């Protein structure tokens, strides 16, 4: 469990620097240079991600059950993760309704993904992993929206094309991941 917690602290901490320590980040980036900063950021993020994966894998070998979710929660999780994939796609597709309305669709997608997995899983490692991501995404979304309002940030108006591409790319990615990649990478097949 300790490795999972360490990985979460490193990974989520690095991904919070832009919001919670912007002056330090800007000064360090200026001192190191853009390329060195991105390299260091990537290495630390990767180290955190590896620790999360390794720690979660170890924790799954000796699960500590906190509750047993009802079977119907798997269906709810599937629906929520479909939404999270659409929002993830919307983070990269220009001029879509999700980005125009909320500004930070990746954080919204992370919240849906984490909530879905909390509903469908009841082990301690699941609560730490998905609860950690959910708490981080909620806080970062609130802070990011406040920051947007303070700076008067606006996002480009939505277009039907941008929204349709977000939905189609997100939906197709969800199908591939749910039917094939989740079982291959995670070892759990959501649809049997």
TrEMBL record:
InterPro entries: NnrU_dom
The organism's place on the tree of life at top rank: Bacteria
Membrane topology, from the record: Multi-pass membrane protein
Keyword Protein biosynthesis: no
Pfam families recorded: NnrU
Membrane-spanning residues: 40-59, 71-93, 113-143, 164-188
Subcellular location(s) of the protein: Membrane
NnrU domain span: 3-190
UniProt keyword list: Membrane, Transmembrane, Transmembrane helix
Annotated protein name in UniProt: NnrU family protein
Organism in which the protein naturally occurs: Hydrogenophaga atypica
């Amino acid at each position: 469990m300790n490795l999972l917690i360490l990985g979460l602290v490193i990974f989520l901490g690095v991904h919070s620097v832009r919001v919670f320590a912007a002056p330090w980040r800007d000064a360090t980036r200026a001192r190191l240079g853009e390329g060195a900063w991105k390299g260091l950021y990537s290495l630390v993020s990767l180290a955190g991600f590896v620790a999360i994966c390794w720690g979660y894998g170890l924790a799954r070998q000796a699960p500590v059950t906190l509750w047993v979710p009802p079977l119907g929660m798997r269906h709810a999780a599937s629906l929520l993760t479909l939404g999270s994939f659409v929002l993830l796609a919307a983070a990269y597709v220009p001029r879509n309704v999700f980005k125009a309305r909320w500004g930070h669709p990746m954080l919204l997608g992370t919240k849906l993904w984490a909530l879905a997995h909390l509903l469908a899983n009841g082990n301690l490692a699941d609560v730490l992993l998905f609860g950690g991501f959910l708490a981080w995404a909620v806080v970062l979304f609130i802070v990011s929206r406040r920051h947007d309002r303070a700076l008067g940030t606006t996002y480009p108006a939505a277009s039907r094309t941008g929204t349709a591409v977000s939905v189609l790319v997100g939906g197709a990615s969800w199908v591939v991941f749910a039917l094939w990649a989740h079982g291959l990478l995670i070892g759990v097949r959501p649809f049997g």
